[in-house]
């Protein structure tokens, strides 16, 4: 962030402008969709100059990407850690249900779909996305699964990257391709099936390991 | 297809032109990528007139969609059925390994990525895709899983739509977002994990039900 090197007051003003621009981008993407989102529109909504936006970001895709980073960072600097009550199944359901809520909310869903398109078209943005958002979030997921593995709740030889794909992938494809309703029941079934497997006898195994 | 209503000779000529255009679209998409693919380029490569292409298709996305349908239909009219040797795990690995080969081949992968982008941007194309390609292929997958379920190789209460998402989803997201290498080892692990689950003890269950 270039604001770090400036005087405190200028830095604070820049940060305020930056947040206004990112919020405007999110709002507009949710309202008009990505195709009709423009730098001009974002500038007007944010009360900022077009040149300010172009000075900080090369494209509307890049603005949206930072806007989504702002959302995922919440109030702090780091993405929020995944819940850990000791009950892996319950925790995963909590996380996936929250994702279902997000994906059903156009304020999140539209910018995320727009970003997905930009990533497919723009290898540089894709690399940036992988480094700054996808990989850190994936690391949080792996870390939660790794703790479950250490506690004997996941198979010792389970490939945690495959596990992440299996648990989070179905929701993502169903959303991206608009293949079906995104419901908490779907989220729950995905978690249960990923943990227990599709073979017969799965349901006879415990579905809730001892919580701590 | 409008060619059906024409005289046999004209229909044959149209079908030849149509296939030349679709093949040119696939070749070019693989060579130059989707962003630089144009109706003009397709026309030149196919030795056809631009107007002919515009008469049959509204956009380059629509051309590519029909080109991919042509590929998936193979020589016949229907998508190929999934293998059924009686050994579900082996059959699923065969299918996913073939998908890995396809997705690692730019001739297939580039047009499919391009179509994915178009589908995200164009709800009409998305509906067409769902009806003409995605849903028929999903039905084949469900049918294979349903036979396995009847044979007691899948849990009686398994949700077959979730099962399809779990088995095919991880490969699709890893490919689409370029999140990791697409290997036969990945395909195999996805199949094994989807069938056996992530919990401990999974590996002690039989991984190959009796083949017929």
How does this structure look, described?
2 copies of one chain form a homodimer. Chain A is mainly alpha-helical and 212 residues long. Chain A has 2 domains: 2-73, Tetracycline Repressor, domain 2, CATH 1.10.357.10; 88-204, Tetracycline Repressor, domain 2. Chain A is 68% helix and 0% strand. Chain A is built from 9 helices and no strands. In chain A, helix 4 packs parallel to helix 7 and helix 8 packs antiparallel against helix 9 (184-196). At the A-B interface, helix 6, helix 7, helix 8 and helix 9 of A face helix 6, helix 7, helix 8 and helix 9 of B. Chains A, B: It comes from Herbidospora solisilvae. Chains A, B: Residues 15-75 form the HTH tetR-type domain. Chains A, B: GO terms for molecular function: DNA-binding transcription factor activity; transcription cis-regulatory region binding. Chains A, B: Keywords: DNA-binding, Transcription, Transcription regulation.
Q: Which keywords apply here?
A:
HTH-type_TetR-like_transc_reg (chains A, B); HTH_TetR (chains A, B); 9 helices; Homeodomain-like_sf (chains A, B); TetR family transcriptional regulator (chains A, B); elongated; Tetracycline Repressor, domain 2; mainly alpha; transcription cis-regulatory region binding (chains A, B)
Tell me roughly what share of residues is in helical segments of chain A: 55-70%
Give the overall form of chain A. elongated
CATH fold title of the largest domain in chain A: Tetracycline Repressor, domain 2
Please count the beta strands of chain A (DSSP E, at least 2 residues each). 0
The ordered H/E elements of chain A are HHHHHHHHH
Largest interface: A-B, 49 and 49 residues
Distance between the termini of chain A: 41 Å
Low-confidence parts of chain A, pLDDT < 50 over ≥5 residues?
203-212
Keywords (chains A, B): DNA-binding, Transcription, Transcription regulation
DNA-binding region (chains A, B): 38-57
InterPro entries (chains A, B): Homeodomain-like_sf, HTH-type_TetR-like_transc_reg, HTH_TetR, Tet_transcr_reg_TetR-rel_C_sf, TetR_C
Pfam families (chains A, B): TetR_C_11, TetR_N
């Amino acid at each position: 962030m270039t604001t770090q090197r400036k005087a405190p007051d200028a830095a604070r003003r820049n940060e305020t402008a930056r947040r206004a621009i990112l919020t405007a981008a999110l709002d507009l993407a949710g309202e008009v969709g990505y195709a009709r989102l423009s730098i001009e529109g974002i500038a007007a909504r944010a009360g900022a100059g077009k040149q300010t936006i172009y000075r900080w970001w090369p494209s509307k895709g890049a603005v949206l990407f930072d806007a989504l980073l702002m959302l995922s960072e919440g109030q702090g600097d780091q993405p929020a850690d995944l819940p850990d009550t000791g009950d892996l199944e319950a925790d995963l359901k909590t996380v996936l249900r929250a994702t279902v809520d997000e994906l059903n909310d156009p304020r999140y869903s539209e910018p995320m779909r727009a970003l997905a398109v930009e990533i497919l078209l723009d290898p540089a943005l894709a690399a940036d996305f992988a480094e700054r958002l996808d990989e850190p979030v994936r690391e949080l997921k792996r870390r939660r699964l790794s703790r479950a593995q250490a506690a004997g709740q996941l198979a010792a030889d389970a490939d945690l990257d495959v596990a992440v794909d299996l648990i989070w992938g179905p929701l993502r494809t169903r959303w991206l391709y608009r293949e079906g309703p995104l419901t908490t029941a779907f989220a729950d079934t995905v978690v249960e099936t990923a943990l227990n497997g599709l073979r017969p006898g799965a349901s006879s195994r415990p579905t809730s390991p001892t919580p701590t």
